[in-house]
Design brief:
- With 98 residues, the protein is mostly helical.
- The protein contains three helices and no strands.
- The protein folds into two domains: 44 residues; 35 residues.
- The protein is rod-shaped.
- The model has no long low-confidence stretch (mean pLDDT 80).
- It comes from Nocardioides pini.
- This is SHOCT domain-containing protein.
Length: 98
């Protein structure tokens, strides 16, 4: 019986030591993971880089707006006496048909 008791005692010591070591490793890993999570949440999130928006496209100017501006200028020249009726009509036809 003394040999059997010695074997059981030895097994109990080995099992107890293994359990203690295993628990210690588990606690150490849990502590490391907790620290990593804490640092992860404490650190500010990285700023995301976005490309600047493209500049707005210039408003398409219609040909009609250009023609109206030219006709107004032509009318002002006629009113100022720079153009006579014939010149005015020729330039007006050129703008409208050209």
């Amino acid at each position: 019986m003394p040999g059997l008791l010695r074997g059981v005692a030895r097994t109990a010591v080995v099992a107890g030591t293994a359990t203690a070591v295993s628990n210690r490793v588990s606690r150490r890993q849990a502590g490391r993971w907790a620290n990593e999570e804490q640092q992860q949440y404490a650190a500010p999130p990285p700023e995301q880089q976005y490309a600047p928006p493209p500049p707005p496209a210039p408003a398409p100017s219609s040909g009609m707006d250009d023609k109206l501006a030219q006709l107004k200028e032509l009318g002002e020249l006629k009113a100022a006496g720079v153009l006579n009726d014939l010149e005015f009509e020729q330039q007006k036809n050129r703008i409208l048909n050209g």
